[in-house]
Amino acid sequence: MSIKINFEGGKKVNAEINGLVVKTDQPLSVGGEGSAPSPFEVFLTSLGTCAGIFIKSFCDQRGIATEKMYLMQDAEYNPIQKLVEKINISIHVPAAFPDKYDSALISTASLCTVKRHLREDIIVDIRVIRDK
Fold first, then answer.
1. d(CA 79, CA 82)
2. Is 15 helix (H, G, I), strand (E, B) or coil?
3. What is the average per-residue pLDDT within 105-111?
4. Residue with more model confidence, 117 or 3
């Protein structure tokens, strides 16, 4: 896979992949315009969206509606190393979502290709949360 990186101006750096563009910028606090996610935010986003497509496929195969499902992700940083040491992903499902699929959802999200490319010492905690 080839990715072309372009400089749009200011702190904007964009990637062109198969004719599609992923735009990035830096926050105002570091001289950007804040017009797009930073490259690091795009990196973290790729983990959540990858887990999301694995979960979507799991549900599609079983005829489970996903319209009321969503994922929330946050990262915990090591203040000394200034690196992410833990990523938390919550899979929000409706109250009526079958309990029997909870562990399967967690396992499915863990198969995400992006997650499998992370260093092994980065903890990825995935859990299911039932929304009321």
1. 5
2. strand
3. 95
4. 3
- Find where tokens 């010492």 sit: 121
41, part of any domain: no
With a CB cutoff of 8 Å and minimum separation 6, the contacts of 95 are 130, 131, 132
Q: Is residue 104 part of a domain?
A: yes
* Per-residue model confidence (pLDDT) at position 14: 97
Distances (CA, A) of 107 to 1, 37, 42, 81: 28, 29, 23, 29
- Show the domain range for 89: 46-131
Could you tell me if 59 and 12 lie in one domain? no
Query: Among candidates 106, 12, 129, which has minimal Cα distance to 51?
Result: 106
Average pLDDT, the chain: 94
59 and 29 within one domain: no
Is residue 124 situated within a structural domain? yes
**Alpha-carbon dihedral sign for residues 103, 105, 111, 117:** negative
- Do 8 and 63 belong to one domain? no
